[in-house]
Write a sequence for this structure.
């Protein structure tokens, strides 16, 4: 899952970024309206959610969401703002926002609202099961044959992405777009390193191969 934060207060942006990264999201941050709109436009279809401040330098959050909807973007947008009159809320929703959260807010509340917006994309229950593998998205635990396997945040996000796309080849560029953030330097060999680390942890000493390499294209977890 990849999220764009558009927020000009560095403290809030960092707080959100670190919190979401801990939950295994890939996170990009824009500090003003125009760069937020540009990132959202260029990467339309790649962000699963946008957290958008209302009062922003250059272009207001309202204007950003209005222009995004104008180009046909359906990305869920949650407004972050100290403005909370009924008129403000109605106006933001009419302009295309999906939800509205009043500053100051707790991270727990924000995360709950984020999960509501992503509900359609996340599996109904919070577990992904594949053969002898169980992934618990709430507790961030992975079990193989009921044994707890310890993964780093990126390994977890990578495994989740491959499992959600079970039966489909995931190209390196799609993996980068969905699992890494914009500061990733597009050195695709890093992905191979992560895949190898993940294989070592998931397959152990068995002859099971969870992840199959499609040479020159990417990786697949085959659906049985
Ligand atoms: Ca602001």
């Amino acid at each position: 899952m990849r999220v764009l934060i558009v927020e000009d207060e560095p403290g809030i942006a960092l707080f959100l970024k670190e919190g979401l990264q801990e939950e295994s999201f890939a996170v990009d941050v824009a500090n003003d309206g125009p760069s937020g709109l540009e990132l959202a436009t260029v990467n339309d279809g790649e962000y699963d959610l946008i957290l958008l401040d209302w009062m922003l330098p250059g272009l207001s959050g309202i204007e950003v969401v209005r222009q995004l909807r104008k180009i046909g973007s359906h990305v869920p947008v949650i407004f972050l703002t100290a403005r909370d009159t009924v008129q403000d809320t109605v106006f933001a929703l009419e302009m295309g926002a999906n939800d509205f959260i009043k500053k100051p807010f707790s991270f727990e509340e924000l995360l709950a609202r984020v999960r509501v917006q992503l509900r359609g994309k996340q599996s109904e229950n919070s577990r992904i099961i594949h053969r002898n593998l169980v992934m618990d998205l709430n507790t961030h635990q992975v079990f193989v044959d009921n044994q707890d396997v310890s993964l780093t945040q990126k390994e977890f996000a990578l495994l989740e992405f491959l499992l959600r796309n079970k039966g489909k080849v995931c190209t390196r560029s799609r993996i980068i777009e969905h699992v890494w953030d914009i500061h990733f330097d597009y050195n695709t060999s890093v992905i191979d390193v992560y895949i190898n680390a993940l294989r070592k942890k998931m397959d152990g000493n068995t002859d099971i191969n969870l992840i199959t390499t499609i040479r020159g294209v990417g990786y697949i977890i085959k659906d049985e």
Observations:
- The first strand starts at residue 2 and ends at 6.
- The chain has two domains: 2-123, 127-220.
